[in-house]
């Protein structure tokens, strides 16, 4: 077996990369939520002065990356790889950002799992000796996502209570081969699971099985259990997906309820902000990680966190053709040592 | 600098992964072209018995991967990572294939550069000690691409002579930490370049600057020149992009004309098959690599090849919003030793 592989899907990093800087940029609604104090930039205009939401999303992603590089005191010339993806068709936010920054670029698509997908690959590239600095980044925008995936906003379509609210936000993490932590120590790469959910307004339920599969695999590969973590946080399962995840794990005798939450629940005050089941989108886990989680790890609140962004790998075409919604979840262990 | 990095954008692999098997599946038009003897499966029905082209594309990708695994005498349980992407929105061909195969999955988006993007990452994951077997794969389908990116086929829209024909095909490569070659020895990861081309019917011109940039960077990082290669082959620049690439390189005093061709030119007999500037799509470089190139390397025709798939990172939305077309090219050195 490959030297750094433990178990079936997990890598134990031998020279754990350090997160030396991170940044988050959010829209007005996220800036009015419970995590507002953790974000670096809160935009008051969700167009960011651009003519359309797609360009606004791209600008937000650029701003998050530039801010993270400034905090890390590095320039684009120092960065070996930019690993990024987003929800827009052909990931234009990421590709146009890469055009602007001129960093060697690896485009990813993992839907809302992109933050942990990019962190995973970035950590592997550094641990493998291929890079000194990697930037992992992603973004989403409520308005660009709604009009691409669902309905024109002008229609004012009523949303069911299972629906989630796509986060307007971008997050960027700078990984380095040296630094004082937090460190990335384990990576569990997910498989695609699909239990047959077809309702695109119930993504949490569609993604929960993948989250459960990755948590179970992570525990079995590493020998860890719930007691080894202060926090297990999924990407954007929101209320319904979170409850399902707890329930499915309990059936297998695993109880993580004391240390488990979801980025889609933390980001909004769902009652007051009328976001139904909670937040979603690549930007959801990206800004919660690059705002709340990493800050609290650095403060010492959490010693070891399992961060697990989750993605629903559907498209409008696959839904129209009667397909169900496949889900994926990648887990990344982040800790101070 | 990271231990395995040479120059700015290039990695020299210290334990070069071996390509232990490869497979290609193509549609009827490709099976009627000059490379037909190299393909494993030539489909006579471009629906592959499915109800729509998107499902046909997905099936083609699955078939190519399963065939490559059979040739490698491995099963899905042996494979550490599936690295795949395609042109369809949210890369559904790849994600639904990953759902079927249940291999840990990393979804990529690099447009038509996906074959070299996936090969690059796969080789890095093996050289880094994270995997024993990786599958790199991609696909495209003329009919699913046309209706997503351009016009409904039923319209019978006339195509300008600069237009390229999206290849119906899928290719898969099995990389291993041990084997008798061909080996992947160098990887040059591209930056995104954009010289302002806005015509989505002239992708070759839009991608040529990225190809030129990556070739120049590869030469300067490695110290290699045209004499060190028997073949330099770009992904899908086709006639116009190929001529531009040669011209731009000549301006910098680099002449690769004796050893240079493009997958988009090789795959069709453009005059007889009425494919205008030539082939394109993720599947173009995928089937030329996993048919013609690797077979001829194994035969000894080519000793060292620079394979460089090229991608146009536009979307219909970015074009409608007036954006030009960013391009990217990743280079992979493949050789017998």
UniProtKB/TrEMBL annotation, chains A, B:
Species: Caldanaerobius fijiensis DSM 17918
Protein name (database record): Stage V sporulation protein AD
Lineage: Bacteria, Bacillati, Bacillota, Clostridia, Thermoanaerobacterales
Entries under Pfam families matching the protein: SpoVAD (PF07451)
Gene3D superfamilies in UniProt: Stage V sporulation protein AD
Annotated NCBIfam families: PRK08304.1 (NF006160), PRK12404.1 (NF009069), spore_V_AD (TIGR02845)
Gene Ontology MF: a single term: acyltransferase activity
InterPro entries per the UniProt record, alphabetical: SpoVAD (IPR010894), SpoVAD_sf (IPR038369), Thiolase-like (IPR016039)
């Amino acid at each position: 077996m490959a030297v750094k592989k433990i178990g079936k899907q997990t890598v134990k990093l031998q020279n754990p990369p350090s997160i030396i800087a991170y940044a988050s940029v959010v829209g007005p609604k996220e800036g009015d939520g419970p995590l507002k104090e953790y974000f670096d930039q809160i935009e008051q205009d969700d167009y960011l002065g651009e003519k359309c939401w797609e360009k606004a999303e791209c600008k937000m992603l650029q701003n998050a990356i530039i801010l993270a590089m400034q905090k890390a005191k590095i320039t684009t010339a120092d960065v070996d790889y930019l690993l990024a993806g987003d929800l827009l068709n052909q990931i234009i936010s990421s590709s146009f950002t890469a055009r602007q920054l001129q960093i060697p670029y690896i485009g990813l698509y993992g839907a809302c799992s992109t933050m942990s997908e990019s962190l995973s690959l970035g950590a592997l590239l550094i641990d493998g000796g291929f890079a000194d600095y990697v930037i992992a980044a992603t973004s989403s925008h409520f308005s660009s996502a709604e009009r691409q995936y669902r309905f024109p906003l002008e229609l004012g379509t009523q949303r069911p209570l299972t629906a989630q609210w796509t986060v307007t936000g971008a997050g960027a993490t700078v990984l380095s081969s040296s630094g004082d932590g937090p460190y990335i120590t384990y990576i569990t790469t997910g498989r695609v699971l699909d239990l047959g959910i077809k309702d695109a307004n119930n993504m949490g339920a569609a993604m929960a099985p993948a989250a459960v599969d990755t948590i179970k695999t992570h525990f079995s590969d590493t020998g860890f259990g719930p007691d080894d973590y202060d926090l297990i946080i999924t990407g954007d399962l929101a209320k319904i997906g979170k409850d399902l995840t707890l329930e499915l794990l309990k059936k297998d005798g695993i109880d993580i309820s004391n240390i488990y939450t979801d980025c889609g629940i933390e980001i909004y005050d769902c009652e007051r902000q009328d976001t139904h089941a909670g937040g979603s989108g690549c930007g959801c886990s990206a800004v919660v990680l690059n705002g709340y989680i990493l800050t609290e790890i650095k403060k010492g609140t959490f010693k070891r966190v399992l961060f697990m962004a989750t993605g629903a790998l559907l498209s409008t075409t696959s839904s129209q053709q009667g397909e169900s919604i496949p889900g994926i979840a990648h887990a990344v262990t982040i800790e101070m040592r």
